[in-house]
Amino acid sequence: MERDVEKLKSYLAGAGVREVVHPSNTEFLSHLDGVYRWLERWRLPAHVKLAGLFHSVYGTQAFEEFSMPLSRRGEIRALIGEAAERLVYAYCALTYQSLGESLRSGGAPRLWDRFEERPLPVTGREYTDLLWIKLADILEQDARARAEVAPEQTIGIRYGWKRLAERLGGAALESWREVYGPAK
């Protein structure tokens, strides 16, 4: 089923995301929309793009300035669909340590659910979708930052995520190079 993205943005605005400043020094809704636009640029399936638009609405390990209660999962599921909401939950629940270890191992993902304090099972397809969303999140923030500050100030830890772009390949790696330039 096709979702009306403008209505979804209005829903998010009504939920209060316009009043929140994201760590990328922009309005939180602008960041969510920017992640959506990266995923749209890569022509990913609708459920992945919608998950990107809502990617951190339950809060993440690093971003708790806005956090819808998990009791609203059913409401979000009704808005964006089951597959998209499952990705949103997984994105918000996973620990960065478990994501980093999964990337480094190159094998099956072994993600950890910080909400439930237990393993976070995802399929191979869901893991790949989560990686696309994470890459869009990183690039959206750093592309904006590079426009506002010296490029060397945005690289730092982000190059640790280059492995993610390499794993996805193709458009992901091209986009990485567009934001960060050629690898040194």
Description:
By secondary structure, the protein is mostly helical. It has ten helices and four strands, in the order H-E-E-H-H-H-H-H-E-E-H-H-H-H. The chain has helices at 5-14, 28-41, 46-53, 73-80, 82-93, 96-105, 124-148, 152-155, 162-168, 170-180, and strands at residues 21-22, 26-27, 111-113, 118-120. Helix 2 (28-41) packs antiparallel against helix 3, helix 2 (28-41) packs across helix 7 (124-148) and helix 3 (46-53) packs across helix 7 (124-148). The protein is globular. The termini are far apart. Mean pLDDT is 86; it is low at 148-157.
Strand content: 5-15%
Query: What is the end-to-end distance?
Result: 44 Å
What structural class should be given to the helix and strand makeup?
A: mainly alpha
Task: Specify the helix fraction band.
Answer: 55-70%
Count up the helices: 10
Q: What form results from the Cα inertia axes?
A: globular
Question: H/E order of the elements?
Answer: HEEHHHHHEEHHHH
Main beta-sheet strand count, sense and barrel state: 2 strands, antiparallel
Overall pLDDT level: 86
Low-confidence stretches: 148-157
C-alpha Rg, in Å? 16 Å
Number of strands: 4
Strand order of the largest sheet: 1-2
What is shown here, in short?
The chain is mainly alpha-helical and 184 residues long. Helices cover 59% and strands 5% of the residues.
